[in-house]
């Protein structure tokens, strides 16, 4: 029984080892290499058949030169900052739209809720790529949005939205909205509505009760939603590539360029590793804080 | 009228015509869509009263409470609290606090912070808040649990926190929505007496919603029995139990045997009724009971005597067969099947430790009662 239990726990660990840690180590190892014109396009290569001495020799050729390079070229720094900024702003906008949506869903009648939930998930039934392409048709100068606004005389000439940061924001908010709505909905849906009445009964205005009770109790959902939007948004490639302009700098695009256009696998790997560290550190800190809050009983 | 039941204390403002009601519902109607939850209801409650709203679920009792708290507005009619109309006053501006059926404790706050919530809301200064919270914790005997979160408490402890939180602001009126519903029987009985003590100690007016008639009987100064959005009868527990005004009330409060029949004569304040179970009933006739009318005679099981021999009187006595016996410790319940097929309940107090030759199953017995033990009801 005990052995069986240990074995069951082993499965997820093996999974993580094979599908997360191993690939990570491979990428990390490539990031310490040098680009060469060969297949695969980096050196040194490890060959166990050549014996210990050769392996040692190969290992000594690994260096952090690529990481130093990343700090020296302002392009990468700007790309990281720009990605973080775009992700941060998009996350905030997604929260601004997602929270009322989730709140409305959680307060809807019980019969209506599954339908609303369905509507939130429905876009996933269409390919992500096609949906982002569809936004080109909506946002381009002669697109649906401009035609609509002009036909009502709201604007005189077409707005330039496509190929700007605004289009990227629209794309990210649209694509990631369900990831914000669902966790918030989950926390709000199980909230006891009489808590709000209790707060009002004890002297809170409706708005006060919202802040002190609803918003506070939805916090875990809000944080989960923000992480689910923020993390993929930082590394987003497709949306800035399709909707953003040439001056929209995002690290996902930079990575793509290094990997496919420059065929510089080591630098691309270093970019990916730095991105991972940038994202993992705050998440670990957040999880620790969460665990501590849990311990004191939240 | 002679006194019915024991009066808990000499406190009867409702009998005093000059007393000003503390809470007044005047022709209040509340509709939710097509459903009428409260139907043209007028009711007065006096200061320091322990008042119970008793009725089955859906009778509108909780809606009355929620209208007082401000969570619902009446569709028509007015509610006055201490002479002031409540129309349009939002919940946070009413000097009324409510203890919720679900307790509605804030899960993210510990016990002390839950109790302090309302005090901080009204801007009480820190030291005073701490002092009041300590006082409240002592009142509900939860001093050691101040730092616990609600989910770390037992059901009974949570109930106490909810109570402490609702009285922390010293409201003049406390509304309690099924406050003991989630507790087990023993704890419920203990808490009933604690609630009564607390009410006397703090000098509050309590308005409590319950569907548990025993709970209402134990605690209340007066009870309003409700049905389908209206109050059927308001009175002290004794009045409600001994002198119900309808079969509905008689049936809702405690156990009751009902005999249907026709009044044949009324003489010297006594009415003669021919029960459809085939025997004559002689009972005290209230005003309005006239010969020829259809009526029901209601009598409580503890007022029915069980004997082996035929009683001397020729009315108020009927023969039957013991159908079932339930021994409840303090008393024994006999279910006696009359020849008409009706089953009558009679309870006998077990005042002696052992009875020689007790009445057994399938024995023929006589049931009898005095004319003033039951009540004649017209509907």
From TrEMBL, chain A:
It comes from Oceaniradius stylonematis. Keywords: Cell membrane, Membrane, Transmembrane, Transmembrane helix, Transport. Belongs to the binding-protein-dependent transport system permease family. CysTW subfamily. Residues 80-286 form the ABC transmembrane type-1 domain. The chain crosses the membrane at residues 12-32, 79-103, 115-136, 167-188, 217-239, 265-286. Its main location: membrane. This is ABC transporter permease subunit. It is found in: Cell membrane.
Automatic annotation (TrEMBL), chain B:
One of its GO terms (molecular function) is ATP binding. It catalyses: ATP + H2O + polyamine-[polyamine-binding protein]Side 1 = ADP + phosphate + polyamineSide 2 + [polyamine-binding protein]Side 1. Its EC number is 7.6.2.11. Keywords: ATP-binding, Cell inner membrane, Cell membrane, Membrane, Nucleotide-binding, Translocase, Transport. Residues 23-253 form the ABC transporter domain. It comes from the Bacteria. The keyword ATP-binding applies. Coiled coil: none annotated. Belongs to the ABC transporter superfamily. Spermidine/putrescine importer (TC 3.A.1.11.1) family. This is Spermidine/putrescine import ATP-binding protein PotA. It comes from Oceaniradius stylonematis. The lineage of its organism: Bacteria, Pseudomonadati, Pseudomonadota, Alphaproteobacteria, Hyphomicrobiales.
